[in-house]
Design goal:
single chain; mainly alpha; GMP Synthetase, Chain A, domain 3; 2 domains; three-stranded mixed β-sheet; two-stranded antiparallel sheet; 16 helices
Length: 532
């Protein structure tokens, strides 16, 4: 037997000879045996993963997720001087001392668990998926979404105030037209029979100017209250939005990319329902942040349009003042003429001062929308899902309504998916509104250009080119106006083309009455046509 064994060994060592058999890996023992061994070794009960086994909420605020994951312990309860704790190594004296210091107790009743189970228990208490930071829990994400909703509401209020101020400026221009007519009649005909027309026109125009400015002036202070939402680089891969609150001023940033989270999400069908809801909650927060950025950009463009409206009002003041100055001989009314010119020039300067930040916001909006157009949405990340493929034609409506799909789709996780998809649709609408706001800002630029060009062309046609300096000034106004018109068209026309192609801008629309106990295909829909 010894000779045969030596011969077999030489053959195995020889080139091309038979290779010795590799040792086979022994299968892992059943989990209940592992737990029984741990319980016997440490002399305490063993526990395994259970979604209902969590850290009490009043203790969470005093603990740290990463610390518990690194030290491998988790409190189940604290009462008086005793605590019930799950740990992987209850016999570690350093860990025992550390737990007593953190929880402020004298005695600990230990439970033992395997490392994978304990990590899952800790992460489940914070409502996060494996490896995610505490900010990825659904409660912190919901708080951040609520705060962003408040920010967007504030932006909406400010845009409404800007719209009100633009209406006031239109009233101011109307009042200026009435005052100009009254002044022309007074300077041409004096205090004669037309006084009954001139005085009411003068009073009405002055009241309209004052009322319009009364609408506008409060918004000047509001421009300083616009809370900026600066853009930052979002890393590739799964990361969570993190909120800091230094001194009551909330700031947003991103966590590091969670290793393995993207791969975990790709295996959607193997995720537990609560793990799916956590991913969807993070998706909704990302979408909410994108909508908040778009709302901020639209607010800045609304500010720019208000500035342009103020500038157009200034152009009216300047044009009328120059016309009076050149038409009538010098006298007491000359002070009024110069007052119009000075006031209009200041208004024009302030209007363009408001405009330039809005122009930058419009360019940023176009860039963010261009970047977002190539990103995958939540629907693209989740579907096609194998759990829905029960037929060969793979019709989404039919698959979602099929009996195998309904329990998983229309339960709590299904509602989270529905909310996420609807949030993604609102995000698409928000981006379209940003493009349309850019178009409206371009149209405001066109109107401002027409106002400047009309003043220059009107002065040149009426007074001619006999006075070279004034003629050059008139031509300059026409050139500036044409440039503004061309620049505005460059902004407005592409957005108009996108609007015509968008399904959100059709003349017909429908209202849906949701019933979350049934698939969406069976929800009642009321259609309204544009010709009704």
């Amino acid at each position: 037997m010894t000779r045969e064994r030596e011969q077999h060994t030489r053959q195995a060592a020889a080139p091309g000879g038979p290779r010795p058999e590799e040792p086979t890996r022994q299968p892992d023992p059943p989990k209940h045996e592992i737990l029984a061994r741990l319980s016997g070794r440490y002399g305490c009960p063993a526990v395994e993963y259970d979604e209902d086994l969590t850290v009490p909420r009043d203790l969470l605020r005093h603990l740290d997720l990463d610390t518990l994951r690194s030290e491998l312990w988790m409190p189940l309860s604290v009462g008086g001087d005793r605590a019930e704790v799950v740990a992987c190594d209850p016999a570690d004296p350093g860990l025992n001392r550390r737990i007593r210091e953190v929880l402020g107790v004298d005695a600990i009743d230990f439970r033992v668990a395997t490392r994978p189970d304990l990590v899952r228990l800790i992460e489940n208490s914070w409502d996060v998926n494996p490896g995610c930071p505490a900010s990825a829990g659904r409660t912190p994400l919901a708080k951040a979404r609520a705060y962003l909703a408040i920010v967007r509401t504030r932006y909406s209020v400010q845009r409404t105030q800007f719209a009100r101020s633009r209406t006031g400026l239109a009233l101011t221009r109307t009042g200026l037209a009435c005052v100009s007519i009254a002044v022309v009649l007074l300077r041409l005909f004096g205090a004669g029979d037309l006084l009954a027309v001139e005085i009411p026109l003068l009073i009405l125009g002055a009241a309209a100017i004052a009322d319009g400015l009364f609408w506008y002036l409060p918004v000047r202070g509001e421009t300083r209250e616009i809370k900026p939402y600066p853009l930052y680089e979002v890393p590739e891969g799964f990361s969570s939005l993190e909120v800091s609150d230094p001194g009551g001023e909330m700031h947003f940033g991103r966590s590091a990319v969670v290793e393995g989270a993207a791969a975990l999400r790709q295996d959607w069908d193997s995720l537990a329902p609560v793990e799916r809801r956590r991913f969807l909650a993070n998706d909704r927060l990302n979408i909410a942040e994108e909508r908040t950025v778009q709302a901020y950009l639209r607010t800045m463009m609304a500010k720019a349009r208000t500035g342009l409206a103020f500038g157009r009002t200034g152009v009216s003041f300047v044009g009328i003042g120059i016309g009076f100055l050149r038409q009538f001989d010098p006298g007491l009314w000359t002070v009024f003429d110069w007052a119009l010119i000075v006031a209009g020039t200041l208004m024009l300067a302030e209007g363009f001062y408001w405009y330039f930040p809005g122009r930058k916001a419009a360019d940023i909006g176009r860039e963010t929308i261009a970047r977002a157009s190539g990103k995958k949405g939540p629907w693209d990340l989740i579907f096609p899902s194998l759990c829905l493929y029960t037929t060969l034609n793979r019709d989404q409506a039919a698959e979602a309504s099929s009996p195998p799909a309904q329990p998983g789709v229309w339960a709590t996780t299904g509602l989270a998916l529905e909310r996420t998809v609807l949030a993604d649709r609102r995000n698409a609408m928000s981006m379209l509104r940003t493009l349309l706001a850019r178009s409206r800002t371009g149209a405001a630029f066109i109107r401002t250009g027409f106002s400047i060009m009309a003043v220059g062309a009107g002065l040149f046609v009426y007074f001619g080119g006999g006075n070279a300096p004034w003629a050059a000034f008139d031509v300059l106004l026409v050139v500036v106006g044409l440039y503004l018109i061309g620049d505005g068209l460059r902004w407005a026309l592409p957005a108009e083309r996108l609007k015509r192609r968008s399904p959100f801008c059709t003349g017909d629309f429908e209202i849906v009455h949701p019933d979350y106990s049934e698939p969406t295909v069976s929800w009642e829909r009321l259609s309204f046509h544009h010709d009704n």
